[in-house]
């Protein structure tokens, strides 16, 4: 697939269904790491995404045809910005788009402490975050299958 021209901008409420559809597709690889579709990103509803939209920032990455191919969310609380749901369409992974989204969301909240989490099994995610300057601060087991690694920058 050739490199395409993309742009990143703040999502609008009308974009949220398309972002949720992308989320369901993007998190299939994460679900496969656990052998189940019963993970929070695949259970999230449109109303829950709307609630996140109302209290934070959701960015979208669109291709030349205005199709959303990536997204990331963030919310600030006491000068700490929680970043989540960084996703890139499976067909566009490995091209630096995740890095661009992460960089862009940090620019919305300059000079803050950033935190995020991912599964300990998501070694590609952990590698990306570490390359971007994040460091592991702790791990927390959710159940016998799932452990989250928390990172900060």
Commentary on this structure:
This protein has helices spanning 16-26, 28-34, 40-43, 46-55, 97-108, 123-131, and strands at residues 7-10, 57-62, 68-77, 80-88, 113-119, 135-141, 147-152. It has a domain at 7-111: Aminopeptidase. It has 6 helices and 7 strands; from the N terminus they run βααααβββαβαββ. The N and C termini lie far apart (33 Å). The model has no long low-confidence stretch (mean pLDDT 94). The radius of gyration is 15 Å and the shape is globular. By secondary structure, the chain is α+β, with helices and mostly antiparallel strands. The longest helix is centred in the last third of the chain and has 12 residues, at 97-108. It has a 7-stranded mixed beta sheet, with helices on both faces. 35% of the residues lie in helices and 32% in strands.
Kindly summarize this structure in a few lines.
With 153 residues, this protein is an alpha+beta fold. Helices cover 35% and strands 32% of the residues.
């Amino acid at each position: 697939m050739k490199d395409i021209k993309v742009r990143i901008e703040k999502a609008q409420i009308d974009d949220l269904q398309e972002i949720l559809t992308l989320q369901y597709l993007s998190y299939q690889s994460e679900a496969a790491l656990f052998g189940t579709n019963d993970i929070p990103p695949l259970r999230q509803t449109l109303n829950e995404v709307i609630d996140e939209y109302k209290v934070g920032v959701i960015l979208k990455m669109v291709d030349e045809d205005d199709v959303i191919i990536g997204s990331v969310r963030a919310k600030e609380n006491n000068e700490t910005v929680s970043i989540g749901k960084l996703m890139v369409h499976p067909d566009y992974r490995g091209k630096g788009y995740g890095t661009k989204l992460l960089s862009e969301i940090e620019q919305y909240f300059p000079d803050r402490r950033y935190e995020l989490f991912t599964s300990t099994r998501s070694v590609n995610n952990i590698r990306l975050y570490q390359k971007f300057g994040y460091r592991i601060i702790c791990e927390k087991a959710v159940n016998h299958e799932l452990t989250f690694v928390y990172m900060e920058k």
